[in-house]
Amino acid sequence: MSERGALRTRLDLLAREIAKFGAVGAIGFVVNAIVFNICVHAFDLAVVRSGVIATVVAIATNYVGNRYWTYRHTEKNKRSRELMLFLLFSGIGLVIENGILALSHYGFGFTSTLADNVAKNVIGLGIGTVFRFWSYRTWVFKALPAREAVETAESFLEGPEAEAEAHSARPARST
Description:
6 helices, GtrA_DPMS_TM, GtrA_CellWall_Glycosyl
């Protein structure tokens, strides 16, 4: 496979990953917004407390969606490590998201329902989502080592000569 073809394949895979992550995130966004507004308007809780509760519920929803759909092809043998990292990076995203809400509501005095929703569910969630996507794909949902599988598949598609070349190009394994 040419470098251009390999790059296109990697970009296609990244686009699919972003689309799946976005779909899971969209569901999480709806959950987050509904829970936030119920906490604020039905239970009359403080906005930051409501934001934290809503984010925690959305984090649980997003973990299930990302683990079993977006990143279902990744390692599954280290679930406790994966969950701890997921919660750590989700917690940082929670601080980003609700820190922006707190700054807007208490720091700048933008206290309307619209301002709170924009601060939390547009600006905070947007920045938090970029951070979460980067951290999840970098540290939480690590892909299985696939170099050998890709080389074998490519050599199979290119013919027997390329297969022999791919096998000879691999470093010897030590046991």
